[in-house]
Amino acid sequence: MRENPLVLHVLGARPNFVKAAPVVRALGELGVRQGIIHTGQHYDALMSDVFFADLGLPEPVANLAVGSGTHARQTAALLVGLEDTFLEQSPDLVVVYGDVNSTLAAILVCAKLGIPSAHVEAGLRSFDRGMPEEVNRIVTDSLSDLLFATSPEALSHLAAEGVPASKVHLVGNPMIDSLFSALPSLDPAPVVARLGLPERYAVATLHRPANVDTPEAAHELVSAVLEVSRQIPLVVPIHPRGRTRLAEAGLVDSPSVRVVDPLGYVDFLSLVRGAALVVTDSGGVQEETTMLGVPCLTVRPNTERPITITHGTNRLVTPALLPAAAEKALADGAVTPSGSQPPLWDGAAGPRIARVISAWLKGDNLSPAAQGIRSE
Asked: Does the keyword Plastid apply (predicted)?
C-alpha cells in the first residue's frame, strides 16, 4: 500500500449521495485522502447537484455525465468512463454504494483492473431477480473485498452465498446518519407553503420499473394513487424515468394531486416528516419513514429491507390493496416504530465504516469490538 493511499467513492444516484456523505466526512476526519466520482447516472440538477450542497459533499474529481439509457447502454458507458478514470486516478480502494448501475459498473471495472473495492449496503436481498437492482446487489457483493452491512439479516444472506465472514462488517446504516444530521433543518412548513399544500397531506414517490415501465402497470398504479388522493391531498415528486409513463396513465395536477419536480434532500425529508402518509416503491424512503415514525405503504411484492417492517412503520401492498391500506393508515394516525430501533441505526455508521477502511489501508483488520460495536 502506498504511503498516502487514495480512496475513491463512486456515486451515481441520489441515494448514493445520502449514504456516502457520512463516510466521506468520517474518512476526512481520519485524514484519509479521497475523492468522489460522479457518474451522472442521475443527471438532473434536482436529482444530483443539489445533494452535494445539502449534504456538504466536496466537488467530484470527475463527472462522467453518462445520463440515461437502457441498462445495457448505460452500463457500457459507465464501464468505459470508470475504467479511464480509475487508470488516471490510480485509487487504492474504490467504495461503491447501494444497487444502481453505477455500483455494478464500478465493481466490474475494479475486478478487471485488480483494484480493491468496498460495498456499503451489502447483503440486502429481495430474492426477486426480476429486479435489476437485485442482480446488481448479488454481483457487487460477490466481487467486493470489504462488505459493509446495514442490518443483521444481511449477514446471513452473505454467509449463504459463501462470502467469507472476514470480509463482512455490520456497521449500521449511513443513510440514517444523514437523516440524524439533517433533523434540525427538517421543517415541513416552508415546503408545504411553497408547494401550496394543505396542512394534512400525503406524499407519493413511484419509479420502479415494475410499477411504471408498462402502460398496464402504470395505469393500475395511477388508478390506485388517484383513489388515495380522494381520501387525502397527495403531493408527488416525480422521478424523470417515470414522468412520461405516469402522465400518460393519467397522473396530472388536479385539486387533489400536486405533481412536482424532484426535491432536494432537505426539502424532501421535510415534506416526509410532516406527511400523514407516504406511498412509495423506494428502498431509502422505507428506511427514512421507519426512523421518522411516518406510516409508509410500499407498493411492491417484496422488499430487500424487511427490517423496516419488523422494526418500523412500513407495510407492503399491491396497487389493488393500496386504497384500503391508506384508509386504515390514515385512520390509525401517526405511529411509533415497534420495539427498539434497528440495530446500529444510531447515527454512527459513517465513523464505523471509516475506521474499518482506515485500518484496512494500514493492513489491519478491525474486530467488532475495535469498531465500537458491542458483541451482544
From this structure: no
Average pLDDT estimate for 302-309: 95
Would 373 be classed as within a structural domain? Answer: no
Per-residue pLDDT tens digits for 348-360: 999 999 999 999 9
The verdict on 129 and 273 lying in the same domain is no
- Answer for the pair 13, 373: CB distance below 8 angstroms, yes or no: no
Q: Which domain holds residue 303?
A: 183-332
Q: Give me 84's grid cell.
A: 479511464
Mean pLDDT, rounded, for 272-296: 96
Same domain? For 20 and 158 the reply is yes
Q: Of the residues 42, 157, 169, 207, which is catalytic?
A: 207
71 in active site:
no
Query: What would the grid cell of residue 195 be?
Result: 408547494
pLDDT at residue 375 in the model: 37
In total, how many domains does the chain have?
Answer: 2
**pTM flag (> 0.90):** yes
Whether residue 211 is predicted with pLDDT greater than 90 in this model: the reply is no
Sheet hosting strand 314-317, strand order edge to edge: 257-260, 234-237, 202-205, 277-280, 296-299, 314-317
Same domain, 167 and 233: no
Residue 178 lies in a domain: no
Across-strand partners of 94?
8, 117
Residue 298 sits at the vertex; the CA angle it makes with 296 and 75, to the nearest 5 degrees, is 130
Q: Pull the grid cell for residue 215.
A: 402502460
Quick: pLDDT tens for 37-71. Answer: 999 865 555 545 677 888 999 999 999 988 777 88
Residues 204, 144 within the same domain:
no
Instruction: Round to whole Å and give the CA distance between 346 and 363.
Output: 28
